[in-house]
């Protein structure tokens, strides 16, 4: 097996965002310039795991593991480097020449999936081109612009148009695409004779992407709605690359935004997501059609700690909110909390943005956010005449069951106070009723069934990686070595200044090794990349050392006096270590010659040197 060329490895590594890959396994939150979360490699309660998307590497301040995307997958899945490279390549649809892979022949399904992704990419570009650049697409373009879609939004979501002319099949046949592949793609319907026809005709096309941003399906909105015999919306059928239960519209973009905002908004439709995006709400997602599934709940739980359900305020919308809350409560990850933003009856988010504008929409989302308890205390009134005593009693019993699930005693008391005031009831009696309901329902005070009542974690209170690094004690010499290496890696002038002294070497072996490996790296590369250099380091202790160096909070402006100070501290320590080693060698030789007088003299000198060394260490640690 030939070694995978460096340029192929670079292409594969640079094709992904390390934050996206790690974000599938670790819930990450923005903390300054970096992302942070709980380390997947050791148990911890306070986040110490840091991901630097700019430099494309991770580092844990707790267990000191560090590396690029390949090393993360190797550590997490216990696979070798080649397997990690293959996994990232497959994820990004990048071919690795067979001569570089010591493995079994590719499975047809993997090749098929890659080909299906390519088909959808080609179809997306074709539909997008027709929409923007042809007379056939003008009616669809007019429709979208009438709906408030700018060309920037159309480009952002790769919207397109499938014309009446059924052009996709001839386009693929011209490119000699295999019939069976087209048949499996979901892009065509098949008649009784086995002939394929374009599935999407006279429809505005909404590409559906997976979590990595690859198009895996389409949803088509009928442009001419007078054709009542056809469905208004038509989705791709399930295929080897598309499972609607596991797919969320705009997740690839929204999950990145959620790291900063701490939440995702669940909207009902694609146009709601797109209009919200145009209004600056980039963390919106939508399920496929009206279905919201437990698989999607799990996916959301891996992306964020809070989900805001933002549906229409009419009766169908409220019923949909109820179903969504129940689904999350039944299947939610432990940390996922739910809140509700209910729009006025008869208006959806898309219509709200078009009618009132972006600023008012953003303000509404912020100011109208409510807990699930608030929602249910209002929702349970629907269809009831609260002036009728029997219906009032039914409502109160249902409302108290909701309050019984509230974990916070203070919050529960607030809701009881509200009910007491509105219906002129004794609050203590209501509290007694709630306690009885909790006993009957077996509700523990420590396990809320309505997670939205607990406060979100405030990650801004956690120390940033730099703050955490400052409390770790290392010697003055080691700190000087780290700082010097940090500048040497990033500044060519500093590198040349240090290497001009051929006798220079670092005191600690790991930094000397990094220095030598960096020299080899620079002989092959003109500039420095952290993620690239990590591939040169095959030992975890070296990766950890580089991770520590990269996390140093140093001035970007190079001060050569500070560089010389570091060199002085390092070289001051080096002769002493050399002298001790030399004295020890002389003492060993004197003892072998049975020269007692010389051995005594050398022992006295060695003790003095050892005392000097100990004194320096004491000074460094104080």
Automatic annotation (TrEMBL):
Q: What EC number(s) has UniProt assigned to this enzyme?
A: 2.7.7.101
Where are the CHC2-type-classified zinc fingers? 39-63
- One Pfam match, given by its short name, reads Toprim_2
Q: What transmembrane ranges does the database entry give?
A: none
Q: Cytoplasm as a keyword?
A: no
Note accompanying the cofactor annotation: Binds 1 zinc ion per monomer.
Q: Which cofactor does it need?
A: Zn(2+)
Which keywords, in A-to-Z order, does the entry hold?
Answer: DNA replication, DNA-binding, DNA-directed RNA polymerase, Magnesium, Metal-binding, Nucleotidyltransferase, Primosome, Transcription, Transferase, Zinc, Zinc-finger
Q: Where is the Toprim domain?
A: 262-346
Matches recorded under Gene3D superfamilies? 3.40.1360.10, DNA primase, catalytic core, N-terminal domain, DNAb Helicase, Chain A, Zinc finger, CHC2-type domain
As its record notes, the protein acts as a catalyst of: ssDNA + n NTP = ssDNA/pppN(pN)n-1 hybrid + (n-1) diphosphate
Q: Where is this region: Disordered?
A: 441-461
Q: The organism sits in which domain of life?
A: Bacteria
The record's top EC class is: transferase
Return the InterPro entries for the record. DNA_helicase_N/primase_C, DNA_primase_core_N_sf, DNA_primase_DnaB-bd, DNA_primase_DnaG, DNA_primase_Znf_CHC2, DnaG_bac, DNAG_N, DnaG_primase
Q: Which SUPFAM superfamilies match?
A: DNA primase core, Zinc beta-ribbon
Keyword hit for Ion transport: no
Q: How does it assemble?
A: Monomer. Interacts with DnaB.
Q: State the family it belongs to.
A: Belongs to the DnaG primase family.
Q: Which PANTHER family match?
A: DNA PRIMASE
Q: What does this protein do?
A: RNA polymerase that catalyzes the synthesis of short RNA molecules used as primers for DNA polymerase during DNA replication.
What does the domain comment read?
Contains an N-terminal zinc-binding domain, a central core domain that contains the primase activity, and a C-terminal DnaB-binding domain.
Put simply, this protein is called: DNA primase
């Amino acid at each position: 097996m030939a070694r995978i060329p460096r340029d192929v490895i670079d292409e594969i590594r640079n094709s992904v965002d390390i934050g996206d890959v790690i974000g599938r396994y670790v819930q990450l939150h923005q903390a300054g310039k970096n992302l942070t979360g709980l380390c997947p490699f050791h148990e911890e309660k306070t986040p110490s795991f840091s991901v630097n998307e700019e430099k494309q590497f991770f580092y844990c301040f707790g267990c000191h593991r560090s590396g690029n995307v390949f090393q993360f997958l190797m550590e997490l899945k216990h696979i070798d480097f080649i397997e990690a490279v293959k996994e990232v390549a497959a994820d990004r649809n990048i071919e690795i020449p067979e001569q570089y892979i010591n493995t079994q022949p590719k499975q047809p399904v993997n090749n098929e999936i890659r080909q299906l992704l390519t088909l959808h990419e080609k179809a997306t570009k074709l539909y997008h081109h027709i929409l923007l650049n042809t007379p056939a697409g003008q009616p669809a373009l007019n429709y979208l612009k009438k709906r408030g879609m700018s060309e920037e939004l159309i480009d952002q979501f790769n919207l397109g148009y499938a014309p009446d002319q059924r052009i996709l099949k001839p386009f693929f046949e011209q490119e000699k695409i295999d019939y069976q592949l087209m048949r499996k793609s979901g892009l065509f319907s098949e008649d009784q004779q086995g002939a394929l026809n374009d599935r999407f005709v006279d429809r505005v096309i909404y590409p559906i992407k997976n979590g990595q941003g690859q198009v895996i399906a389409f949803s088509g909105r009928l442009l001419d709605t007078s054709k009542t015999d056809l469905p208004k919306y038509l989705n791709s059928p399930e295929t080897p690359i598309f499972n609607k239960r596991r797919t969320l519209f705009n997740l690839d973009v929204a999950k990145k935004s959620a790291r900063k905002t701490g939440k995702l908004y669940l909207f009902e439709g694609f146009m709601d997501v797109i209009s919200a995006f145009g209004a600056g709400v980039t963390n919106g997602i939508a399920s496929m059609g009206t279905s919201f599934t437990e698989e999607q709940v799990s996916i959301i739980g891996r992306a964020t700690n809070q989900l805001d359900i933002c549906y229409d305020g009419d009766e169908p919308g409220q019923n949909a909110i109820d179903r969504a809350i129940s689904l999350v409560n039944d299947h939610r990850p432990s940390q996922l909390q739910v809140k509700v933003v209910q729009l006025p009856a008869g208006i959806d988010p898309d219509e709200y943005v078009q009618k009132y504008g972006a600023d008012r929409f953003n303000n509404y989302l912020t100011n109208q956010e409510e807990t699930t308890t608030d929602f249910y205390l209002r929702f349970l009134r629907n269809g009831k005449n609260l002036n009728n005593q029997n219906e009032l009693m039914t409502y109160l019993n249902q409302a108290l069951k909701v309050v019984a699930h509230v974990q916070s005693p203070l919050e529960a008391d607030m809701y009881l106070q509200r009910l007491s005031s509105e219906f002129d009831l004794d609050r203590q009696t209501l509290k007694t009723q709630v306690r009885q309901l909790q006993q009957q329902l077996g509700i523990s005070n420590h396990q809320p069934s309505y997670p939205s009542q607990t406060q979100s974690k405030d990650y801004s209170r956690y120390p940033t990686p730099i703050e955490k690094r400052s409390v770790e004690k290392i010697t003055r010499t080691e700190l000087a070595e780290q700082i010097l290496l940090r500048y040497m890696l990033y500044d060519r002038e500093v590198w040349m200044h240090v290497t001009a002294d051929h006798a220079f070497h670092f005191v600690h072996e790991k930094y000397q090794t990094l220095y030598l490996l960096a020299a080899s790296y620079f002989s092959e590369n003109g500039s420095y990349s952290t993620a690239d250099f990590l591939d040169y380091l095959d030992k975890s202790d070296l990766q950890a050392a580089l991770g520590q160096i990269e996390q140093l909070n140093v001035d970007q402006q190079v001060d050569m006096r500070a560089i010389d100070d570091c060199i002085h501290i390092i070289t001051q320590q080096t002769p002493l270590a050399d002298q001790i080693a030399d004295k020890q060698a002389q003492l060993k030789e004197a003892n072998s010659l049975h020269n007692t007088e010389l051995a005594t003299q050398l022992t006295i000198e060695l003790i003095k040197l050892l005392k000097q060394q100990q004194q320096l260490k004491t000074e460094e640690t104080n």
